[in-house]
């Protein structure tokens, strides 16, 4: 007798349900096929590639004055890590688009694998929801049809997060610093990362981790810092740039006069920092008695070791932080920055898309609401150019997700607490 097809399908589904790793691996292979088809059959869109190559050519020819490193889309505004990465890309691809697309296709799969690893280790979303990580038309385009430097920055960031899950602080901070050296949007993760360091490391651990990250930044920028330091710092680390209103995906509904004003930027910065502090105090430090109590305890411990001259002889690690807590603090902290960013351009979607399923499943929304929100975000990012209504809807969805995260229960901060709460 022949096998029952429905029973075979059920057996296959049960196998995937019982092993997220198998399902994630299958999705990785299917997405690799999709990426290959996109590269071969979807026309490449010329945006920044020629400008990147022009800036790299200037660097490779010996130019160290950042004010003179320019392309057809304007002057170079990224830290020096960008130049090293794209110099390597040019060496590998010869500066040609098609081999670069293949390289970026490989990087897309590597990045997806890193994100899947984070999701598997935190175990927040159901097995079938992993498919959401492969459903973004815009993110596929950002990687293999646009070749933006955001892709490399986020790969480094996700690799750093994967190491954080295992408390490999020094190496994680080096990769984090490397990501910042490619594009500064990664600094949105810096406040939650610092909080996690205070929770998991002693003064010695924090000092050594930050020292390594700082030395990497100095080393990367050294050729420019020793020749034209003002030009390098003012251009590569310019936090006051005003973006063009037309390209804004999130605040297109705001009149241009308001959009470019310093008052609007200051208000958003105030809301960003205030929301971070509120989450840090009431959510992320709940088990420590609040942010002030956490800081007081950490500073008191540091002061006592300083007075006894043991600050550098004590252990670097204090406690083992719960993996889910690490991912939650990092992803939510970055998302808060996204919500209050003055301007999100189309490639900026890669800054937080891969955290969306995690964030949605951290809320207590019903599953169909989570899927509607996910689809709504993706739809808004695929409307070009953005409109009054698409940007307003995107902001409303962002705020609704943020409210859901605020109302969500707080996970234990440390492994010891996680065990006591019966997760094991």
Key attributes of the depicted protein:
endoplasmic reticulum, mainly alpha, 424 residues, dol-P-Man:Man(5)GlcNAc(2)-PP-Dol alpha-1,3-mannosyltransferase activity, two-stranded antiparallel sheet
Write the layout of secondary structure elements.
Blueprint: H1 5-18, H2 20-41, H3 49-60, E1 70-71, E2 74-75, H4 81-93, H5 97-122, H6 137-146, H7 150-164, H8 169-182, H9 190-200, H10 203-225, H11 229-236, H12 256-259, H13 262-284, H14 291-307, H15 323-339, H16 356-362, H17 367-381, H18 388-407, H19 415-420
Antiparallel strand pairs: 1-2
Helix pairs in contact: 1-2, 2-5, 3-4, 4-5, 4-8, 5-6, 5-7, 7-8, 8-10, 9-15, 13-15, 15-18, 16-17, 17-18
What separation lies between the terminal Cα atoms? 44 Å
- SSE-based structural type: mainly alpha
Overall domain count: 1
Radius of gyration: 23 Å
What can be said about this structure in brief?
Its main location: endoplasmic reticulum. The protein has 424 residues and is an all-alpha fold.
């Amino acid at each position: 007798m022949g096998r029952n097809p429905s029973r075979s399908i059920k057996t296959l589904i049960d196998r995937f349900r019982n092993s997220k790793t198998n399902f994630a691996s299958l999705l990785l292979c299917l997405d690799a096929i999709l990426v290959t088809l996109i590269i071969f059959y979807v026309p490449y869109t010329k945006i920044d590639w020629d400008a990147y190559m022009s800036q790299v050519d200037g660097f490779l020819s010996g130019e160290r004055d950042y004010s003179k490193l320019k392309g057809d889309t304007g002057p170079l505004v990224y830290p020096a890590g960008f130049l090293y990465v794209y110099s390597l890309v040019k060496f590998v691809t010869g500066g040609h688009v098609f081999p670069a697309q293949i390289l970026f296709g490989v990087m897309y799969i590597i990045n997806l694998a890193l994100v899947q690893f984070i999701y598997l280790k935190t175990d927040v979303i159901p097995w079938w929801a992993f498919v959401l990580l492969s459903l973004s038309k815009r993110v596929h385009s950002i990687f293999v049809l646009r070749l933006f430097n955001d892709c490399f920055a986020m790969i480094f960031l996700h690799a750093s997060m994967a190491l954080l899950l295992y408390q490999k602080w020094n190496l994680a901070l080096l990769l984090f610093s490397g990501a910042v050296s490619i594009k500064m949007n990664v600094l949105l993760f810096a406040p939650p990362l610092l909080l996690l360091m205070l929770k998991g490391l002693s003064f010695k651990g924090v000092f050594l981790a930050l020292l390594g990250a700082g030395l990497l930044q100095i080393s990367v920028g050294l050729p420019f810092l020793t020749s034209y330091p003002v030009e390098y710092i003012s251009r590569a680390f310019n936090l006051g740039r005003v973006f063009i209103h037309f390209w804004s995906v999130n605040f297109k509904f705001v009149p241009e006069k308001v959009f470019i004003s310093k008052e609007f930027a200051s208000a958003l910065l105030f809301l960003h920092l205030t929301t971070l502090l509120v989450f840090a105090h009431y959510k992320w430090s709940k088990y420590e008695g609040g942010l002030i109590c956490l800081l007081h305890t950490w500073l008191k411990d540091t002061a006592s070791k300083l007075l006894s001259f043991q600050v550098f002889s004590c252990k670097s690690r204090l406690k083992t932080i719960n993996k889910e807590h690490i991912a939650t603090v990092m992803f939510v902290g970055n998302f808060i920055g996204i919500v209050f960013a003055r301007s999100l351009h189309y490639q900026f979607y890669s800054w937080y898309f891969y955290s969306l399923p995690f964030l949605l499943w951290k809320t207590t929304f019903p599953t169909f609401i989570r899927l509607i929100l996910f689809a709504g975000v993706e739809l808004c990012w695929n409307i070009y150019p953005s409109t009054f209504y698409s940007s307003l809807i995107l902001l409303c969805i962002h705020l609704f997700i943020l409210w859901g995260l605020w109302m969500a229960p707080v996970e234990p901060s440390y492994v010891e607490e996680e065990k006591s709460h019966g997760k094991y």
